[in-house]
């Protein structure tokens, strides 16, 4: 399916289970290709609930052996400003269902230090990206994203300056609706990725999916619309309920 936003690729799965399986397969395929072509796979994980079963599936025996985890490098698209032991931590979620279950060298995991002063945590993560990718800001092989019902993605929330940031790769913002500070990658680094994949499930997302993909382009109001890879591929993986309000093509 194409949409008015240009060449993004929309894949609709019949239900959540097939969406989860499809997303896990895509990650394994992307990782296998990256390792074959460049000797490593760099991925930025999304937080939230939707990707959790996908990460769990990656950790399962058969798919766990499908990737050479020693060549996989894990980053985070965003983090809540909480300690890594906090139930709200995106790192803790990924650690619990994936990172603790695959043979990943600890040095391959780049955690955003949510326990630090927000501006310092953002600056330190930006420095970690610079050290890893170099000044050119060469992008990730894969950035996974979710989207909230208000159109936020990562921690790019409506009205935040981070949504239109053109220089910094990581910023800290106080998010009123969440009542907390958050650290997020900006569109600068997300749009430099070779592949960006949104994962969405459930009827509750149908209206925002329609607005973002088929409504007016207004990224400050709908930050997911700020995700427009410069040269990489953008793909939306949806289950049928989440895609229900899209024009069938
Ligand atoms: C986070 C995520 C956030 C998430 C959306 C959708 O830190 O929570 O980065 O952007 O992807 O809020 O969350 P669900 O997948 O739980 O609907």
Structure, described:
This protein has 249 residues and is an alpha/beta fold. The protein has one domain: Rossmann fold, CATH 3.40.50. 31% of the residues lie in helices and 19% in strands. The chain contains 8 helices and 9 strands. A 6-stranded parallel sheet has the order 1-9-8-5-2-3. Strand 6 and strand 7 form a beta hairpin. Helix 1 crosses helix 2. The longest helix has 23 residues. It is globular and about 45 Å long. The model has no long low-confidence stretch (mean pLDDT 95). The site of 6-phosphogluconic acid has 15 residues, from loops.
Beta-strand segment tally: 9
- Describe the biggest sheet? 6 strands, parallel
Give the topology string: H per helix, E per strand.
EHEHHEEHHEEEHEHEH
Query: What count of domains describes the coordinates?
Result: 1
CATH classification, class level: Alpha Beta
Overall mean pLDDT stands at: 95
Q: Which fold name fills CATH's third level, the topology?
A: Rossmann fold
* Estimated share of beta-strand residues: 15-25%
Query: What count of helical segments does DSSP give?
Result: 8
User: Which ions and ligands are bound to the chains?
Assistant: 6-phosphogluconic acid
The best one-word shape is: globular
| Rg (CA only) | 17 Å
First-residue to last-residue Cα separation: 6 Å
Helix content: 25-40%
Q: Order of strands in the sheet with the most strands?
A: 1-9-8-5-2-3
Low-confidence stretches: none
CATH architecture: 3-Layer(aba) Sandwich
